[in-house]
Fold:
Amino acid sequence: MEFKGFSSKALDFLDSIRKNNNKEWFELHRDEYDKYILEPSRAFVSEMGEHLMALEPTVNFEPKINKSLFRIYRDTRRMGANKAPIKHRIGFIFWQGGGSRMQSSSFYMHFSPDELFVAVGVRWFEKPMLDAYREYIKDDERRALLGDMLKELEEKGYKTIEKGYKRYPRGFSLEMSNVELSLYKGMAAYKVLPPSLIQEGEKLIDTLYRIYEDMLPLQRLMYDVSLRAKED
Structure:
């Protein structure tokens, strides 16, 4: 299926989920989900994935749920999780490496009625990745490289996710240059765009490609970190 963009009804449908967030309503409207969300999402993953291979030939993508696509039902069993059962934003992930897709450096995107969110990196670390990241940036040259990389991205209009910690971890001190990098619970850069862009297939692909190309150095650095992660 050729990707021609998402229908304007896709955003309307997601807005309806917000207003009718229950499984009964969703099951009655599942055909709309399939038509306006799922089918074009599969086409998008296939086309975007092919483009990303020009940047990173080893990138992983598969137009299936729990691969490059996420489940529409939210896992509400986790402590602190959003208890609304249906997601009103649609996410996509193109990951690099053989581990967990969420703990591998990735090209990520989601859209909702409010925004089109585009990111690269790992948005939150589980312990193996957190340990690998901290060990990686203990090296002065690597820390300086990452610091300069984030500054360059900021100059291009990108943002870095917020820090997650207030105290420096063991092995880091105020005297170290770029020591604030040790306060992150994940490491990713992102940009927010108007959600209406999803309706323009070719323009969406081109725009995302340029963004991912800009952020490619961070993708590669975080992939290097992921290769150093040791499972518990």
